Amino acid sequence: MGDKKLSKNIVGVAISGPSSKYVVDAIVEAEEEGIPAVWLTSGGGAGDSLSVLVAAAARTDKILLGTSIMRIWSRHPVTTAEQVATISSIAPGRFRLGVGSGINNTVERTFGVRFKRPLTHLTEYVHIVRTLLHEGSVNFEGSCYTARSELPGIADDVPVLSSALGPKSYEIAGKFADGAITWVTPHSYATGEALNILRESSKAVNRPTPPLVLHAALCVSDDNCEGMRGVRSRLGYFPNIPFYTNMFERAGFTDAAMSGWTDEMIKSILINGTEHEASDRLDSLFESGASEILVSIVSDPGKHASTSRSMRFLSDYFKGMDS
User: Fold this and answer.
1) DSSP string across 37-88
2) Distance separating alpha carbons of residues 201 and 168, to the nearest angstrom
3) What Å distances lie between residue 197 and 113, 244, 251, 311, CA to CA?
4) CA–CA distances in Å: residue 158 to residues 52, 89, 103, 190, 212
5) How far apart are CA 77 and CA 107, in angstroms?
6) Which of 43, 223, 230, 309 is the most buried (most CB within 10 A)?
7) pLDDT tens digits, one per residue of 271-285
8) Between helices 167-176 and 118-135, what is the axis angle to 10°?
9) DSSP characters for 171-231?
């Protein structure tokens, strides 16, 4: 089922901003510029991502809208399914729900819950939401969630994707979700060991391999060092988060927590250079097995010219593929 839920070779943009209105306006502008897809993170400054995307759905016509990711602790899966069905009715065929457990310290501080068995929570959450959206009803009692509910109609056009970082999370995505979403993950690891786990786990339960949505930092600039600085500025804390430290070690970068971002680590997640160089890199990632690419545009702080150039490049790249 998951293989039919996502477009192939799409490049979407992570949108963030200081207010909900700013983000909605940015999504409208992205559609006008020809960007095919946007994603909102749980900490992108827009407030509640589902509410923001309802507003964006009403003001746009074609652009794909997604969460990458919505933290599962913020609402019960039945409530999520009901909200997502509302968005789908406004923007049929355009919404993609990405969910994940988030980071333990942040979750416990924000929601006052114990961050225990996160992958069990995620597995049950994905099952409940997918079942309710795709079949219209659910009757489930697990170790973390209970859900007995019906929707007035199904929203089978909504893929439910799960965040993926370590081997177990890719296995869960392969068995239960409509796709796996990476974040700040070395591309060679994501399209190598991780993609193999995704394929093997889905094969074990006789499912098509779900799509891999691959996250990348992007900076289209004549200054190759600008993208490196942009990663350190925007994504600087990730190597120090234990979950990410473990993932980087699996990808071959030892002592990430001590070293922080090294140049080699940054190169493993960054697409930079001229338009021609960035285009070649995107092509290579699709050839390596990525179904979609989700980019965070990075640049020197306050350097709007590079950000605008990167957005124009993405629009032109998509138009070139679509022609």
Assistant:
1) EEEE-TTSSSSSHHHHHHHHHHH-SS-EEEES-EEGGGS-HHHHHHHHHHHH
2) 10
3) 30, 18, 14, 33
4) 17, 10, 25, 24, 16
5) 17
6) 230
7) 999 999 999 999 999
8) 20
9) HHHHHH-S-EE--S--HHHIIIIIHHHHHHHHHHTT-PPPPEEEEEEEEE-S-HHHHHHHH
Backbone angles phi, psi at 295, to 5 degrees: -110, 140
Question: With contact defined as beta carbons under 8 Å apart, do 173 and 161 qualify?
Answer: yes
241 CB-side CA count, 13 A: 16
Alpha-carbon distance 144 to 12, whole Å? 33
Residue in the block written with tokens 């079949």:
135
pLDDT at residue 3, as a whole number: 42
Judge whether 40 and 15 are in contact, CB under 8 Å: yes
Cα distance between residue 33 and residue 22, in whole Å = 16
Distance CA 269, CA 175 (A): 26
Q: What is the pTM of this model?
A: 0.94
Residues in the chain: 323
Looking at this protein, which amino acid is placed at residue 121? H
DSSP-assigned letter for residue 316: H
Q: Which amino acid is at 154?
A: I
In angstroms, the CA 6 to CA 158 distance is 9
Q: What is the DSSP letter of 264?
A: H
Sort strands 146-150 and 212-220 into parallel, antiparallel or unpaired.
unpaired
The pLDDT tens digits of the residues spanning 229-240 come to 999 999 999 999
Token pair, residue 244, equals: 């990410």
Q: Are strands 270-273 and 146-150 parallel, antiparallel or unpaired?
A: unpaired
Distance CA 176, CA 194 (A): 16
Say yes or no to pLDDT of 228 above 80.
yes
Residues 195, 183, 290: CA angle, nearest 5 degrees: 35
Q: Can you read off the two tokens belonging to residue 104?
A: 């333990």
Burial class (CB in 10 A: 0-12, 13-18, 19+), 276: exposed
229/225 Cα distance (integer angstroms): 6
